[in-house]
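cron nightly-structures :: item 1 of 1
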Amino acid sequence: MPEQEFDVTPFDVEGAVNYDSLVDKFGTEEIDEELKNRFFEIAGDENLYVKRDFVYSHRGLDNALDEYEEGEGFFLYTGIGPSGKMHIGHIISFYFTRWIQEKFDVNIYIQVTDDEKYWDRDITDEEIDKYAEDNIREIAAVGFDPDKTFIFRNREYMGNMYDGIVKIAEKINNSQAQSVFGFEGSTSIGMNFWPAIQNIPTFFEEKRCVIPAAIDQDPYWRIQRDIAGKFGHKKTAAIHSKFIPALTGPEGKMSSSKPKTAIMLDDSPEQVEEKVKKQAFSGGGDTLEEHKEEGADLSVDTSFQWLRSLLLEDDEELNRIAEQYSSGEMMTGEIKEILIEELNRFLEAHQERKENVDQKVEKMMYEGYLAREMWEKNIDLELKR
C-alpha cells in the first residue's frame, strides 16, 4: 500500500505524518532504547513523553549528555509565537522542557516571538500584546524555576540581542533561507531576516544549547548547526516531539484557529466534555456489531493516542484500555469518558497555578537571577574569520 502524502514545514503540517519517513527526510536520528535508557539514568527518573515515544527524535542529544556527565552541562531554549490562545498541544512541550530543567538543574531561555507573528500573520499589535501576555502566564504556570528561567519578548529585548543577530545574519544567505523555509519573492523581508533572530538564543551561553520542540521546527536549527563553528560555538542539540493529533483525527495537528481540533488551556470541564464527545475521532467500528466483532483501530483513535502519549502515567491501566478497546469489549463512549476525566484533571491543576503566576512572571522576565543577568548583558558574537 503506497504511503499517504504529507507535508511538514515550520509553518504548516498537512496530511497524516509518517514519523519514520520524516526522520529520513530531515536527517535526524530516532531516540533508540539505549539512548532513552541513558537519558533516564542520568536524569534519575523516567519521562512519560519519552517513554511512550511521543518525544522520539534528536540531533546531538548524545553529545549533550556526554558534556553533562563531564561537568560542562548544557542550557535549554524554546519559545512561543503569540498569535492566539494556547491549547494543550502548545503546553505539553513546555512541561517536557520543565522536566529537563528540574532533573538536570539547567537554565532555560524562552523566546516570545512577537515580531515573527507580526510578519507572518494578519494580526494587529494590540492582538499580539494580548496574546503574548496570556501566553507568558500560561508558560509561567508550568512551574519553571524562576531564578533559572528567562522569558523575553523579542521586540522588547531586541537591543540586547541585535549585535549578535547582525553577525548571524551575515552568515545566512538568501539561498539558504529559501532552500530551508521555502521563502518566495512575495515573502516579507522580515521573515527572510527571521532565521537570524530565531537562532540568537542558541548563543546565549558558551555551553551546548538543547532545544525541545516539535519536529517541524527542526529546519531552524539546521541553519544554526551550519554556522555555529564560525563563532566558535557548539552545534545546537534538538529533541523532537511528534505532533499531538487534532481532536478531529490523525491528519494535521491541533490549531487555535480551528477550535474543533483543540482543547484550549482555559476550557471549562463542560467544554472539554462537549468537545471530546462530539469531536474526538474514533477508531471504533461504524456500528455496535462491527465494533464488537473487529474492535477499535488504536492508531487513529484520538482518545487512545492522547491517553497513551500525554496523560495516562499508569502502564497497567493503559494496557487494560488497549486490550479491551481493541478487542471490542470497551466502547468508544467509555474511552472518551476516561479521556475527559484525565484532561480535566490536567487542566484544573494548570489553571489553578495560572491564577497565581504574576510574581513568577516578573521574576522570569525582569527580577530573577537569570533575568537580571541577561538584562545587563549585550549578546555579541565574535566571528572566527
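cron nightly-structures :: done
The chain has two domains: 7-247, 259-354.
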